[in-house]
Design goal:
Number of strands: 15
Strand content: 5-15%
Structural class: alpha/beta
CATH architecture of the largest domain: 3-Layer(aba) Sandwich
Largest sheet: 7 strands, mixed
Order of helices and strands: HEHHEHEHEEEHEHEHEEHHHEEHHEEEH
CATH class of the largest domain: Alpha Beta
Oligomer: single chain
Shape: globular
Helix content: 40-55%
Bound molecules: pyridoxal-5'-phosphate
């Protein structure tokens, strides 16, 4: 069996990467030179099959209008192989990026008075999407267990929200960004049956699903929705899985073939669709990327556990919220928060919000005092400012450097 390399550090400076752009880094942590552990892409090279397919297309020299006949079949093949999920072709559409596809469906499947329900903390564009499309929206806060440092869905709270807002639209995220929570069969069935009971459609963003760790199983929402008879759209993409997020692409699966047709019609109206190179990369990844992905998920799970044990064993006072999928994890910083606040009042210039508008107190602390750029918890909603989000989709060597810096910075507080 071929062994893939996730340890070699790839130099991403000057590679048109937002994660490594000094101005963008400054905007979240106030230190343009900080090592980046933020934006959700990984530092690994793409699978060899993907780079070969891209090189083949580019070396041809002409990048004209594409014509593909098998994109839905490729998605089908992948879904069955990775998630044991069998889908008939008439329920699948291929969209541009995840966010474009979701925004298009929010517009298509809701009206201006439909309430959008958003699990919190949330990937910020979910909230921006509801606001930009001028839909009323409401928060569905996840439950947080401060002892185990784990999040889970509060199903009673969902029922009370649906009772108050029947015929709404749930913008679900599974596995959940930023908590890394992978939903159980029971949670999915309950959500689907409540959605049916209260006539609510579910749009499920499953962009992190392929990256579920070997110790866990991800169940597509579509499976529960069909069991319970609720109307849903489940979206997956190869972008996070194979580190090709610059090439927007999305598989859209509707419980109802009519919804799939409506989505395709709407894309045609707007002249939207996946591009040539995004389709080449996605096809190669789905056709030949399985073994690479399996090794990657092992590496990521190890990283997640390594971070948690380092923070615990070194008495940092920080607690990792250990995810069950993907390469991003929250860190609970409650125990150091007051000390950081005091540091900020003594050295206000270091924590200047005017030069780091996308950040918060903690991301500025880590940026200035540890030289590492993390997303501040406040980016994911109010009430989460005691957390930061750490992107550990990188080599263990870099992670160790970041952890050492964190530990030293805290000992100076
Ligand atoms: C939950 C979630 N949805 C969507 C996206 C973005 O997807 P796309 O770039 O395909 O629009 C991200 C990226 O971080 C994400 O985490």
């Amino acid at each position: 069996m071929h062994s893939f390399d996730f340890s070699t550090i790839v130099d991403r400076t000057d590679s048109l990467s937002v994660k490594y752009a000094p101005d963008a880094i400054r905007s979240i942590c106030n230190n343009a030179q900080a090592m980046p552990f933020w934006v959700a892409d990984m530092d690994f090279s793409v699978p060899p099959s993907v780079s070969q397919a891209l090189a083949g297309q580019v070396s041809h020299g002409v990048l004209g209008y594409p014509y593909f006949t098998n994109l839905r079949q490729n998605f089908c093949y992948w879904s069955a192989k990775r998630h044991a999920w069998d889908i008939s072709l008439n329920r699948i559409a291929i969209g541009p990026g995840m966010l474009t596809s979701l925004a298009l469906m929010v517009e298509l499947f809701s009206s201006p008075d439909t309430t959008i329900i958003i699990p919190m903390p949330a990937y910020k564009p979910f909230v921006k999407m509801a606001q930009a499309l001028k839909r009323p929206w409401t928060e569905w806060p996840l439950e947080y267990d401060e002892i185990s440092h784990r999040f889970s869905f509060d199903l009673e709270k969902l029922e009370s929200l649906l009772k108050a807002n029947p015929s709404s639209l749930l913008l679900f995220c599974s596995p959940h960004n930023p908590t890394g929570h992978v939903s159980s069969d029971y949670e999915l069935d309950t959500i689907a049956s409540l959605a049916k009971k209260y006539n609510t459609m579910v749009l499920s963003d499953e962009i992190h699903a392929d990256l579920t760790y070997p110790s866990t199983v991800h169940i597509p929402f579509d499976v529960a929705a069909r069991r319970q008879g609720c109307r849903a759209v489940t979206c997956m993409a190869p972008s996070k899985s194979f580190n090709i997020s610059g090439e927007h692409y999305c598989g859209v699966v509707c419980t109802d073939a009519e919804d799939c047709k409506a989505f395709i019609d709407r894309m045609q109206t707007l002249f939207l669709g996946p591009s040539l190179l995004s389709s080449v990369t996605a096809s190669a990844a789905y056709a030949e990327g399985y073994e690479w992905l399996m090794q990657l998920t092992e590496y990521l799970e190890h990283n997640a556990l390594h971070i948690a044990s380092f923070l615990r064993d070194n008495h940092t006072g920080l607690h990792a919220v250990v995810p069950s999928a993907s390469f991003i994890g929250l860190i609970d910083c409650t125990e150091i928060f007051e000390r950081v606040r005091k540091d900020a009042s003594r050295f206000p210039r270091l924590y200047d919000p005017a030069t780091s508008r996308e950040g918060g107190l903690l991301s500025r602390f880590f940026g200035q005092r540890a030289g590492i750029a993390l997303n501040d918890g406040s980016w994911f909603g109010s009430g989460y400012d005691h957390f930061v989000r750490f992107n550990f989709g990188t080599s263990r060597q870099k992670i160790d450097q970041a952890l050492e810096n964190i530990s030293k910075a805290i000992s100076m507080l």
